[in-house]
Amino acid sequence: DRRSAAQRWAEADRARVDALRREALRRRWHGPEGVVDLGAAIDAVARFAAAHDLPDVTRETERLRDDLDRPLLLAVLGEFNAGKSTLINAFIGADVAPMGIVPTTATLNVLRDGAERLVRVVRSDGSTREGGYDALRRLLADAEAEDAGPEVDRVEIVLPSPTLERVWVLDAPGTNALDPAHERLANEAARRADAVLWVFDAAQAGKLTESAMHERLRAQGRLVVPVLNKRDRLAEEELARVTSVVEEGFGVAPLPISARKALKARLAGDDAAYAATGFPALLAHLEAEVFGRSRVLKRGAVAGRLAAALDDALDLEATRASEATVRRAALEARSRALAAAQSGLRLGIDDTLRAFERDRDAAFEADAEAELAFVRTRSSRFASHGVDREDRAFLAEVLERRLGAASAAFARRLRARFAGELAGVAEPEAVQAAVADALRAPLAGFWGYQRGVLAGGALARFFEDTLPRAELEGASLARELGRSRADLDGELRPALAEVLAALTQGLRREIEGTRRAEDEAEALRTQRIAGPLRALREALGELARTPIRERGYAPEPLDRS
After folding, report:
1. Do residues 203 and 230 touch, judged by C-beta distance below 8 A?
2. What is the pLDDT of residues 247-278, one digit of tens each?
3. pLDDT tens, position by position, 50-68
4. Neighbouring C-beta atoms of residue 109, cutoff 10 Å
5. Residue 89 near residue 199 (C-beta atoms within 8 A)
6. Is 221:306 a contact under the CB 8 Å cutoff?
7. What pLDDT does 28 receive?
8. pLDDT score recorded for residue 4
9. Exposed / middle / buried, residue 171 (Cβ in 10 Å: 0-12, 13-18, 19+)
10. Measured on CA atoms in the order 134, 137, 140, 145, is the torsion positive or negative?
11. What are phi and psi of 558, to 5 degrees?
């Protein structure tokens, strides 16, 4: 039929529509030149993090905004005692580390350019403290003594240097130093870096621990330049063998240098000795592969770090989407339970009305037995039984209390019965409260009617017309007294049917309203949050050339044909 044909067309077109929508969203993040607008992307993730209370993601986006405008950050990493500090000094052309500036405390140290020599301790909240080189240890001690304050994020070592105008150098403690804090900082330095200079000790190069770190760096999309330091300690044949081992394990040949001799020659101005250290070849390689591509490397690294932050944000979104799916399934279960409970609810009215009737019978029987104790029996065949006026009032009050207790018991039973029947639909306390509220008016009306019947002449007729000539026997008196009862089927049952209808309709409306709200929230989340953020994640993955994590939200690869 026509409807099924439309459905078949919808199924056939859905994949194409989804692909077009995803492509449109992906292009949304590209600027006029066809490249990802990283500033806008960072701001978008920051807004998401602020709206969803993700402080770690918020802090990361703040750092990335600053990183985007800073010079290239080159991390110098390597295992403990590989000669990193000496290499940094030779690279900058100043005797930095041996002067005692770089602290022995486990910190990240950024060497950057500046008009004057100073050190700056930067905390995780962005606050800073500055001083001369000789004040660094005191500044660190002061920062660490303030236990309530934010932790130290990094130490900036500022000095005039033409090299540092182009590239900042990130120095971290060596890996494999049997100190977990050092290992953590080395990993953090690798995460923050735009490119990495990995320093091998020529005498110990190619260890498994170094291979593991290199694999992590490559997985993060970082450019890694391997350097084989202390080449002067190996004969040419041994140097060639170690170089081959490193190249086989890391996929690229390392650049052999002697940082110690390069620093010595550079400080002495000995060009010939400096050329023999291999350092000029390293600088030429860095110029071609790193400094000359600083903009591309910076954008790729920032995109990679933003993608990682976005993964955390999308993790939250995926979790919330899963929670929403669970909530919708619960709503469906509640709806089914409400439909299934209808017959039980109607039966509950029948059962509780029968119990109410039995309680009323008991009330009339008890009142009849009490009357036997108060009645004055007739003295002759032509006389009448009698009850004093005061006794009449007392017996009427007792009967009213007993009928009121029966009415209260009925309300309790009905609330409990409805709560049991609707156990899978709503919380029992909420159902009981709703039933109590709904019963208030019908029960008050019924009870008012019952009291009106009693006060309006039913008891008076019993005491004046029926009792004087009745047999003084409890069952007989109870039957006669029971004629003053209000009609449950005529007066109360219709009101209870209305209560049941109102209750079930209210629950149905609440379920449907919640379901609509969930569907609208899901559509909003997909169209305005999850969809654009997933497209942004895909675009960032292309820019950073890093793989998208295997997550439930990962989009299918776009058709590049």
Report:
1. yes
2. 887 778 899 999 999 999 988 989 999 999 99
3. 888 888 888 889 889 988 8
4. 26
5. no
6. no
7. 67
8. 56
9. buried
10. negative
11. -75, 150
E strand or H helix at 78: strand 72-78
Closest residue by Cα to residue 299 from 561, 12, 543:
543
Q: What is the DSSP letter of 175?
A: B
C-alpha 483/C-alpha 469 separation (Å) is: 16
Residue with the larger pLDDT of the pair 454 and 378: 454
Question: Taking 80 as the threshold, does the pLDDT of residue 94 lie above it?
Answer: no
Mean pLDDT of the chain: 81
Please report where in the chains the tokens 């009745």 appear, as a residue: 470
In whole angstroms, what is the distance from residue 89 CA to residue 290 CA? Answer: 19
Three-state DSSP state, 83:
coil
Q: CA-CA distance, 215 to 212, in Å (whole number)? A: 5
Q: How far apart are CA 397 and CA 410, in angstroms?
A: 20
Burial string for 127-140 (b: 16+ CB within 10 Å, else e) reads: eebeeebeebeebb
- SS3 state of residue 369: helix
CA end-to-end distance (rounded Å), the chain? 36
Q: Is residue 44's pLDDT more than 70?
A: yes
pLDDT of residue 5: 54
Among residues 114, 116, 187, 162, the alpha carbon closest in space to that of 283 is found at: 162
Asked if residues 76 and 88 have their Cβ atoms less than 8 Å apart, the reply is yes
Phi, psi angle pair for 33, to nearest 5°: -85, 5
Sign of the alpha-carbon dihedral angle for 425, 428, 433, 435: positive
Residues 6+ away with beta carbon under 8 Å from 270: none
Alpha carbon separation from 499 to 340, 453, 490, 491 (Å, rounded): 18, 24, 15, 13
Over the range 468-504, which residues count as b (16 or more CB within 10 Å of their CB) and which as e?
Answer: eebeeebeebbebbbebbbebeeebeebbeebbeebb
Half-sphere exposure of 121 (CA within 13 A, CB side): 21
Order across the sheet with 255-256: list the strands: 128-131, 118-123, 152-159, 109-113, 167-171, 72-78, 195-201, 223-229, 255-256
Give the pLDDT mean for 89-115.
71
